[in-house]
Design brief:
- The structure is a single chain.
- By secondary structure, this protein is mainly alpha-helical.
- It has eight helices and no strands.
- It has helices at about 15-35, 40-60, 65-90, 95-115, 130-155, 160-180, 185-210, 220-240.
- Helix 1 (about 15-35) crosses helix 7, helix 1 packs antiparallel against helix 8 and helix 2 (about 40-60) runs antiparallel to helix 3 (about 65-90).
- The longest helix has 28 residues, at about 130-155.
Length: about 260
Amino acid sequence: MTDPRPNKVPEIGVLFWVIKVLTTGMGETTSDFFVKQFVPEIVVAIAGVALAVALLLQLRMSRYVPAVYWLAVTMVSVFGTMAADVVHIVIGVPYVVSTAFFGVALIAAFVVWRRVEGTLSIHSIVTRRRELFYWAVVIITFAFGTAAGDLTATTFGLGYLGSGILFAVVMAVPAIGWARFGLGDILAFWFAYVVTRPLGASFADWMGVSAERGGLALGTGPVSLVLATLIMVLVGVLSVSRTARAPFRSIYPAPGLDGK
């Protein structure tokens, strides 16, 4: 292993999971708002550039900086939503196919990362190569989660609220498996991480879309603003308080340094 550096991934605590779910919801409604208000091709291009800038800034950091890290995650959420939507709406790929495709891509990314680095532990992101693997997986999880959420809400007919409830139940699975049945730290963490995407997006869609589509009709713009405000407040808490990075242990574990 070369080019060691401080770990640039946050400690895993309750605030981590709360902010993660908020970013997934914000990414969903923000993407929908801008794509419908402006020319989709231009919006997607701008989002792609913004994502590249955010990731470059994150990669240039020498340590974990909450504001920079969560900016990158937020932009991944926005662009990941747009990418998954483009595959379905513009290209016409069914949600079943896109979900399967992104699922296979995610598994492949995990396999390559594990074979090259020997661990998927987020507490071992201490080289540039591992950091690149980490962000590649994060991007794919957002695209996969977006497609999966749309699959259950539309193709399977559960609606956005029904999908949100479904994924809330699914997210409890790794917690119970880890706490009661010895599920490995890494599998439990990444299982929960992937599920946060359709969980947050489903509830955000439910709040934002029209009543005709089974939503509360609050509007994607207002929902995005509220979620963005909450994210900024919580990231501010992380930034000003060193102990707030992990205020108390999450029910979801962080993968250990030994990679088990």
